[in-house]
Specification:
Mg(2+) binds at residues 212, 232. This protein is an alpha/beta fold. The chain is 40% helix and 21% strand.
């Protein structure tokens, strides 16, 4: 039996099961937020619990009957499951309830498709969608599958499927090629930043924690920021200047989410590379969210997956305006290093404290002092000018040059070593790793 599948579903029924295995648990509230972000209109929320999913329908026979009745009662066009369904389960449920079914992965991919703005973002989303779709190709052609046969007896079902699969494979290959080109261009940009020793500060966090609002507040930008999941998809880079640490690049990246589909992590590896190669991560946390500890854990998991778990991190507890009687502040560790900043990105309260903390953490590896050079140190003076490290120059009564310099400590050490000048002649330089 075959039914027409509408182009888009608006009236939606949401389905969530509490499963015995906590590792598979999803948040029911998050499903509602995802559905609204995708533009769906949820009319009913069907919940239940099972020790483990049914292999055929995911839900049990009773829940399936309940779901069929709800679809008919509301005239729903879409049923969204808060779980990853196998292609077979998706197909079986559609066959039984005569309504389009979308699983959590498909829903997130749909939101990503709506949010992608740049050429690279659109390519990444399309790649993830095609790879997801390739496992579900048979679905729209179930009414033709029985016409398969041997040589000379192949029916249109198999022909269509094979043709679709071939087109999909060709398209996936083509997107991979184009993405490789974009990645090479990105790598060149990152290499030039590394050569000029410009630090990259990357905003990371659970989706909807307020990263884009904070980004706008710091950089006086107007990138899209909204109270919805995945408002920002494409990475945005802006140059900022810090008092001691000098120029830095601030990067706003895609928000993370529980069980972020692996296909998306793979497809967005180029975008997430801004995070994996950052000098410092600002982990933005919604301090008003009851599930913030779980969200922190999920972000840490994705950071580990993209190889960014060892990058220095500063926690930014945002949405302080929603907590009564709390003032912006910096929390420090036993050594006086900033570890946490409390602020409100919406009102801007505490953003100066954040910049102060970032400046402290980045300038820890920057040498910014005035050194005295004798006339015989002309070679060192020339090299410092070559590196753009001299901010100011004056002469004292003895004819010594007083140079105010700022550069990375490791670069200064290498320079002194190359010129056979003992580092301690000018300063005690320690490099922090």
């Amino acid at each position: 039996m075959f039914f027409e599948r509408p182009e888009s579903g608006e009236l939606a029924i949401l389905v969530h099961l509490d499963l015995a295995d906590e590792a598979d648990q999803e948040s029911p509230r998050e499903l509602e937020e995802l559905a609204l972000s995708a533009g769906a209109d949820p009319v009913e929320f069907l919940t239940g619990s099972r020790a483990q999913p049914s292999p055929k329908f995911f839900v049990g026979a009773g829940k399936l009957e309940e779901l069929r009745a709800l679809v008919q009662m509301h005239g729903a066009e879409l049923v969204i499951f808060n779980h990853a369904l196998s292609p077979g389960q998706e197909r079986n449920i559609e066959h039984e309830i005569k309504c389009r079914v979308l699983d959590r992965t498909g829903l997130i991919l749909d939101i990503f498709a709506q949010r992608a703005r740049t050429h690279e973002g659109k390519l990444q989303v399309e790649l993830a969608q095609l790879e997801h779709m390739s496992t579900r190709l048979v679905r729209g052609w179930t009414h033709l599958e029985r016409q398969k046969g041997g040589i000379g007896l192949r029916g249109p079902g198999e022909t269509q499927l094979e043709s679709d699969r071939r087109m999909l494979r060709a398209r996936i290959k083509s997107i991979h090629k184009r993405l490789d080109k974009v990645r090479k261009q990105r790598d060149q940009g990152r290499r030039s930043r590394r050569r000029s020793e410009i630090a990259t500060v990357s905003l990371v966090g659970y989706t909807n924690a307020g990263k884009s609002t904070l980004f706008n507040q710091i950089t006086a930008s107007d990138i899209y920021a909204a109270d919805q999941l995945f408002a920002t998809l494409d990475p945005t880079l802006r140059r900022i200047t810090l008092d001691d640490a000098g120029p830095a690049i601030l990067a706003d990246t895609v928000g993370f989410i529980r069980h972020l589909p692996h296909k998306l992590v793979e497809s967005f590896r180029a975008t997430l590379q801004e995070t994996s190669e950052a000098t410092l991560l600002l982990h933005v946390i919604d301090c008003y969210d009851d599930e913030r500890h779980d969200n922190i854990h999920e972000v840490e998991k994705v950071l580990k997956e993209i190889g960014a778990e060892d990058i220095p991190q500063l926690q930014v507890y945002n949405k302080l305006d929603l907590l009564e009687g709390q003032a912006p502040r910096i929390d420090r560790d036993d050594e006086g290093q900033p570890v946490r900043v409390w602020l409100s990105a919406v009102s801007g309260a505490g953003t100066e404290l954040l910049l102060q903390a970032v400046n402290e953490l980045l300038s820890d590896d920057v040498f910014h002092e005035t050194i005295s050079l004798s006339p015989r140190d002309g070679g060192l003076r020339a090299q410092l000018y070559d590196q753009g490290a001299v901010l100011n120059e004056s002469y004292d009564d003895q004819g010594h040059m007083q140079l105010e310099i700022r550069l990375q400590k490791k670069d200064l050490l290498q320079l002194l070593s190359r010129l056979d000048i003992p580092a301690e002649r000018y300063c005690s330089v320690e490099v922090h790793h």
